[in-house]
Amino acid sequence: MNMSPKHHERFGISSDTIVHARGVSKSFGALQVLKSVDLDVPSGKVACIIGPSGSGKSTFLRCINHLEKIDSGLLLVDGDLVGYQLRDDKLYELPPSAICRKRAEIGMVFQQFNLFPHMTVLENIIEAPVHVRREPVKEATERALQLLSKVGLAEKRSAYPRHLSGGQQQRVAIARALAMNPKVILFDEPTSALDPELVGDVLEVMKTLARDGMTMVVVTHEMGFAAEVADQVIFMDGGVVVEAGKPSEVLSNPSSARTREFLSRVL
Ligand code: ADP
Ligand code: MG
Description:
five-stranded antiparallel β-sheet; ABC_ATPase_HisP-typ; membrane; six-stranded mixed β-sheet; alpha/beta; ABC-type amino acid transporter activity; binds magnesium ion; cell membrane; ATP binding; binds adenosine-5'-diphosphate
């Protein structure tokens, strides 16, 4: 496998930085959705992104995962370039094969679970390890069963997604992300589609991952989770990072009136 050189040193970034964004901007037509966004997520840390609907949170996660191309700025994941602006205004981009390889190192968990409906729980989890990573089925299955135990669903290995509750589907989606041994998992409002009584189990699994040292970027409206688990909270509004810091700063003692106004609506 082509091990391209890492770019931490070149950009003066600590080698344990998993996500590094500087001045990341993105427009859809005339609409500028991200306006010079900065973020650093060290290995093993949890960043929670909060903010009103339409503030660019999902778009930012999609940029980190190469699902959207950035227009300008610098974006590195584990020292590999997602994109950056050169002085001559050309944007450096990874070739498609490298993007595929890179995306396989980044887990993504969506609001709507996005499990493959025609596959069992076990088949969902081993799909990428077997077909993308070429792992033997036996090994991938053993590991999948361990991961299912970890998310409390060992007995559901043969079930189809439609027979699971939303909370169970989301825990399968987390196990599926973990099966690729990702460098980071991006969560986009993972509990927003769930009935309230199912939210707790999913958050418990996410807390366990955080305690185990998984690097996570979590877009969420669960302020209790952010307060307890996040190493840093980022408040975005209108495509801008308005405020970022420890939960005790941003959630308990925000310096910006916009953050205070948002928190007064969601808390
Ligand atoms: P959030 O996740 O914070 O609710 P999004 O990143 O989904 O915000 O969206 C930010 C803005 O970008 C919204 O105004 C949305 O309508 C717009 N947007 C998102 N994706 C696209 C797209 N593919 N094409 C055009 N506009 C988009
Ligand atoms: Mg969103």
